[in-house]
Design a protein that fits this description.
Chains A, B: InterPro entries: Alpha/beta_knot_MTases, Ribosomal_eL30-like_sf, rRNA_Methyltransferase, SpoU_MeTrfase, SpoU_subst-bd, tRNA_m1G_MTases_N. Chains A, B: This is RNA methyltransferase. Chains A, B: Keywords: Methyltransferase, Transferase. Chains A, B: One of its GO terms (molecular function) is RNA binding. Two copies of one chain form a homodimer. The first copy, chain A, contains eleven helices and twelve strands. The mean pLDDT of chain A is about 90. In chain A, strands 8-7-6-11-9-12-10 form a seven-stranded parallel beta sheet, sandwiched between helices. A five-stranded mixed beta sheet of chain A has the order 1-4-3-5-2. By secondary structure, chain A is α/β, with parallel strands linked by helices. Helices cover about 30% and strands about 20% of the residues of chain A. Chain A has two domains: about 100 residues, 60s Ribosomal Protein L30, Chain: A (2-Layer Sandwich), CATH 3.30.1330.30; about 150 residues, SPOUT methyltransferase, trefoil knot domain (Alpha/beta knot, 3-Layer(aba) Sandwich), CATH 3.40.1280.10.
């Protein structure tokens, strides 16, 4: 059972995990140093706990005590209770859901672990935007993909904004960072995956022309928002695939093209 | 040729179309009253003009004069030139692209006009979020749909945020609002469209089981972000369709499900 603490003011040092949530660069540093991430909103907090992640502490406005009673019951972490106005002073933004938890970051998985049991993998190169990472992971999870691999420069899936956009899909979907990005095509090949690089190149195969063999293990590779996939991946992938588009439209954004690709390559 | 005006300060009354761009409710009122909308960024300004929309005025930082020379050449609207810092004072936010135009809103189209020549229509019910409207219209346009119909409560596709997310697709894609939303199913039927309502209902047909007859005119109906499609539409549509999803995931967001549906129903 969580121990409850009524907190008097925003300056209480026990709230230090929750300060300045709007400051992206400060939070990046702080969350990595302290090995934590922030779950925001009743639903997301519950999902994080259900996924087996451990709360370091919770910060709740009084009205959330009841609906999160089961979560509080199941943890030994301290729960700080504070009115919503003061919570906003601490975090620096309007916490419209009034329920926060500082969660311990789970141990990172290795790409090998993630690939071992997967049949469908989404590989993301340099998606630096937290909203896009969150949206991509939500789509990938919804469409039955098993795992996500990230290039070193991809944004953090456990950053508050990513978690929020992903609706918590980042907790249940296994993912790993590939440190040696240059060797990634070989890594996939060694694990028995056929790689499909999403591309705008003129000689790409239209998505609807691609048929998957029964039992085939599929890796879909998507590039960054601006320049798209690097030349290295374009050349190294087994296939280059494009989503045929109407004239005059630049491209779909990465969340939309991922959704369409994952739909086409979904496990059946 | 646009007449150039060097503007001295943020208080100049000629800049009134550009004030307080961050204030959503004020801007809504103001843009409707004055019959204008704001195009932001070199690319979007050019697309708006190429789509035949008329600038009332432009507001540019000096460095954009050259790259927009063709646009300035082709218009009689005044062009106000101002340093980027003062532009930010006027608009109230960081205009990272330093090029704005106040455009005359085009005359609204009627649903009948829009439907007359379309084969693929996306119908949106109560998408109140500007980002979602923009993302949906970008996806719809990219996948070769011909038009969009909006319920009365849908967000404004010409609001700055929608335009930006849509990458200008709102200029070239015909759209109309349906005033009598209750009669919308009949309207589509009268125009020879088969309607497919995207739904989470258990008895919906999986999307991949749907085959379209040659020459069929297709209307895809998507519901609002929270509650999904209203019961009225669920009952009135010719078919209820669902995107099969992995266990434990609530749903795809509306931009992703629209992308997948439009991909499935794309004209071939």
């Amino acid at each position: 059972m969580a121990e409850l603490f009524q907190i008097a003011g925003a300056g209480d040092p026990r709230l230090r995990d929750y300060t300045d949530l709007r400051d992206v660069s400060l939070r990046k540093l702080l969350e990595t140093e302290r090995g934590l991430y922030i779950a925001e909103g009743e639903k997301v907090v519950r999902r994080a706990v259900e996924a087996g992640h451990r709360p370091r502490s919770l910060l709740l406005a009084p009205r959330w005590m009841e609906s999160l009673a089961d979560v509080l019951e199941a943890t030994d972490a301290p729960c700080y209770v504070l009115d919503e106005k003061t919570i906003e002073q601490v975090t620096g933004f309007h916490v419209h859901r009034g329920a926060l938890a500082a969660m311990e970051r789970p141990e990172p998985l290795s790409p090998e672990t993630v690939l071992a049991s997967a049949r469908r993998v989404l590989v993301a190169e340099d998606l630096v935007d937290h909203t896009n990472i969150g949206a991509v992971m939500r789509n990938v999870a919804a469409l039955g993909f098993d795992a996500v691999l990230l290039s070193p420069r991809c944004a953090d899936p456990l950053y508050r904004r990513s978690v929020k956009v992903a609706m918590g899909a980042v907790f249940s979907l296994p993912y790993a960072r590939i440190e040696d990005w240059y060797a990634a095509p070989d890594l996939l090949r060694e694990h028995g995956f056929t790689s499909y690089a999403m591309s705008l190149a003129a000689d790409s195969v239209p998505l609807d022309a691609i048929e998957i063999a029964p039992g085939e293990r599929v890796a879909v590779i998507v590039g960054s928002e601006g320049p798209g996939l690097t030349e290295h991946w374009q050349q190294a992938a087994d296939h280059r695939v494009t989503i045929p588009m109407a004239a005059g439209i630049d491209s779909l954004n990465v969340a939309a093209s991922t959704a369409i690709a994952c739909w086409h390559f979904r496990p059946r």
